[in-house]
Design a protein that fits this description.
The complex is a heterodimer of chains A (about 300) and B (about 425). With about 300 residues, chain A is mostly helical. Chain A has 13 helices and one strand. The longest helix of chain B is centred in the first third of the chain and has 21 residues. The chains are: A mainly alpha (about 300), B alpha+beta (about 425).
Chain lengths: ~300, ~425
């Protein structure tokens, strides 16, 4: 016996309320009642700064939880953040430095490869984590509303701890080899920002895709591994990449970041501004389109995750 | 006129059901299928989304269809309905976890929704850390949690284990901690799905008490539960959800009565038991429900192979799992059936409703052949809800439940038909 729905007269709704408005912040004046309108979304949006701000404590805890949980019940703990790039550097020094004899332009190979491995390892781990962040927290997505953007963003941010620890190792190595950084080291935060932006862009795109197509989860680690060879980690762009392909090569934003790291820290040459500019352009495009894509897919996460 | 806290207008939500893959019956076909699989999978995965109001295919399920209702500010409204009726979908849309396919809802006020206790709990984190994690996920700020921290810990009763990872907690302790966090949310609108059933009896009473406080504190609450007593005591008004439709009732008792009627009378009036998988016997049954106070069950069994005669047995289980009534198939209620024929059994449990307490009763059914007692058994074939005695106004005639099985007289009428089975 089908029951009938009682039709209700259309209620008056205030037209000024934006769709998808945040459920209100705790510090909002009590007189203003937050109004949320729930309806099928048609237009595309980037993000809602007011909402992200309302949930900022959640973001902090998500990042902190990632960091806290990662090294729980582990004997070496954060030591693992050092082991990965250090061991890779040792192996690469033997294989590419000694056996293949790759030309570094006079820089000791361990230092040459480690300066690249620190940003690269961050990028690889942050994107891998970021891509699986939605699928990994599917149970949370299905049960509670919060800005979904926080999941890939927190994954990418949490990896910065590992990155900073590895940076300290790099500094130690520079002291050992007696190579002080050039004055342009002040530009390092800029490079790091580009690095984080690139990792975020890829994570947004692929995490949203991975919710619907799990293939992404399987393919991503493999392609990221291959990506290392598309970036100047074990070789130098100036020496190994023909000049006419240089800017094409720089579409990979990590290439500019790595060469920038080498230029500022090891003084391998002038800052590769051309590469950094191309990388920043691709990153901006990827980040903005990633945001739009993520936000448009966001509504289906709970249904298909 | 009071302001509306929640206004729902023509809300609909469609889901696409999983499609059964067709299987090729030749080796070449199977190989072709394997090669085509990625493309097919891609389309299947894509089709899960992007449903529109015009989708009316067989594989589209409308979990909610043109639902409209209103909740006034400060009202506590119950939502009841059977499993799969659309309650959770409704709550998920109102909590913005998922988006409606059509229609809209307007919510005025800060919402917290509680579809599960302990969302975001991580087993590696300590109790203290999980309180903050869970609290912020539910929309509290760190400052808010700081100010309520002692209260939360006190309510949960796990203060001794605050710095122990929650993976070492007993499951009871975990839900108590989780509920404690949830109980201290202070939104203007609270949406709750079936979270009272946690912890031991004592803790449940505490939770119900807390819910009473919330209900009387002037907050707007949408409360989904299968615990009809809780709904009755907490809610003044109640919505009944049935097959994607919502009916509003101004009186909770009236809503509960309607819900129980729905339960007793399956919408289809005929339950298909199991899938017809080509087995030797295939049974379908209709629980024709309570007429007067008798429980009538019609069972039809179609036979594929030659077995001789078919009998029919059943068991009725109380909400706590105890058998209320059981009768095996025996010669006196067996009927000779030829392959392709259908046997019909009409079971009548006389004065069933008068002899049992209120609650949900489950019916198991089976057919037997000579030498095989349970030739084909279907557990939980159907469910019958008996209203509590108080609501029924009948004299309690609790015929002594002996060893859990009360003496309910059963009539069985069996016939066989010559009609060909349709498949």
């Amino acid at each position: 016996m089908p029951t009938t729905t009682l039709p209700q007269p259309n209620a008056e709704t205030s037209p000024q309320a934006a769709p998808g408005q945040s459920p209100g912040t705790s510090d909002a004046p009590a007189a203003v009642v937050a109004e949320t309108i729930i309806e099928p979304r048609k237009s595309w949006r980037l993000f809602d700064p007011k909402e992200l701000n309302a949930y900022r404590d959640l973001f902090r805890f998500l990042v902190w939880r990632k960091i806290r949980v990662r090294y729980a019940q582990s004997a070496i703990g954060v030591g693992w953040a050092v082991i990965q790039p250090v061991f890779s550097a040792i192996v690469f020094t033997i294989v590419f430095g000694r056996m293949a004899g790759i030309d570094t332009g006079g820089v000791p190979y361990p230092l040459f490869v480690f300066a690249a491995l620190v940003p690269w390892t961050y990028f690889a781990n942050a994107t891998t984590d970021g891509i699986s962040s939605l699928v990994g927290e599917a149970s949370m997505i299905r049960k509670v509303y919060f800005p979904r953007l926080f999941l890939p963003m927190s994954a990418v941010s949490a990896k910065l701890v590992d990155f900073l620890i590895a940076m300290l190792c790099l500094a130690a190595l520079m002291v050992v080899y007696g190579r002080p950084p050039s004055w342009s080291v002040v530009l390092l935060p800029l490079l790091i920002a580009l690095l984080v932006a690139a990792a975020t862009a890829i994570s947004l795109w692929l995490a949203a895709l991975a919710v619907q197509f799990r293939d992404v989860n399987y393919a991503a680690p493999f392609f990221i591994q291959l990506g290392m060879y598309a970036s100047p980690v074990v070789y130098s762009t100036a020496i190994s990449v023909p000049d006419r392909y240089r800017l094409l090569y720089a579409i990979n934003p990590i290439a500019g970041v790595i060469e920038g790291f080498r230029a500022t820290l090891l003084g391998t040459g002038p800052m590769p501004w051309d590469m950094i500019a191309v990388g920043a352009a691709t990153t901006t495009v990827a980040l903005l389109s990633g945001l739009v894509f993520f936000r448009s897919k966001e509504k289906i996460f709970a249904d298909v995750a | 006129m009071t302001t509306k806290a929640i206004t729902v207008e023509d809300l609909s939500k469609a889901y696409r059901l999983g499609e059964f893959a067709e299987r090729a019956d030749t080796a070449v076909g199977a190989l072709a299928d394997v090669l085509r699989a990625p493309l097919r999978n891609f389309h299947r995965l894509r089709r899960q989304t992007g449903l529109t109001v015009d989708d009316r295919g067989d594989d589209v399920l409308w979990a909610l269809r043109d639902v409209s209702f209103e909740v006034a500010e400060g009202e506590v409204v119950g939502v009841i309905g059977r499993n799969g009726a659309g309650k959770s979908t409704l709550l998920k849309i109102l909590s913005r976890i998922t988006e409606p396919t059509a229609g809209r809802a307007v919510i005025r006020g800060r919402v917290s929704s509680l579809l599960e206790v302990g969302t975001g709990f991580h087993p590696e984190l300590s109790g203290r850390e999980n309180i903050y994690m869970n609290g912020t996920i539910l929309g509290m700020s760190k400052r808010e949690i700081d100010s309520k921290f002692d209260e939360i810990v006190d309510f949960s009763g796990v203060e001794r284990f605050l710095d122990t990872p929650t993976k070492r907690y007993s499951s009871g302790m975990q839900v108590r901690l989780a509920f404690a966090v949830a109980a201290h949310l202070e939104p203007e609108i609270l949406i709750i799905d079936e979270v009272l059933a946690v912890g031991d009896t004592q803790f449940q009473a505490k939770c119900l008490g807390k819910m009473q406080d919330v209900a009387t504190s002037g907050r707007t609450v949408l409360f989904v539960s299968h615990n009809l007593n809780a709904v009755r005591s907490l809610c003044k008004r109640c919505n009944v959800v049935e097959a994607g439709n919502v009916t509003e009732f101004d009186d909770t008792d009236e809503a509960i009565a309607t819900y129980q009627e729905l339960n007793a009378m399956p919408a289809e009036n005929q339950i298909q038991l199991g899938r017809d998988n080509g087995a030797d016997a295939f049974i379908s049954a209709a629980i024709v429900a309570i007429s007067e106070s008798d429980l009538n069950i019609d069972v039809t069994a179609t036979l594929r192979t030659k077995l001789g005669s078919l009998g029919c047995g059943f068991r009725v289980r109380a909400p706590d799992g105890t058998r209320v009534c059981e009768q095996g198939a025996n010669v006196s209620n067996a009927v000779v059936v030829n392959p392709g024929q259908t046997a019909t059994f009409s079971l009548r449990l006389r004065e069933f409703a008068e002899r049992v307490n209120g609650g949900d009763y489950l019916v198991d059914l089976w057919v037997s052949a000579p030498g095989i007692e349970k030739f084909h058994e279907v557990t939980c074939a159907g469910q019958v809800t008996i209203a509590p005695r108080a609501a029924r106004n009948t004299v309690a005639v609790l015929t002594a439940r002996r060893n859990g099985v009360s003496r309910i007289p059963v009539d069985v009428i069996c016939t066989s038909s010559d009609q060909e089975s349709s498949n």
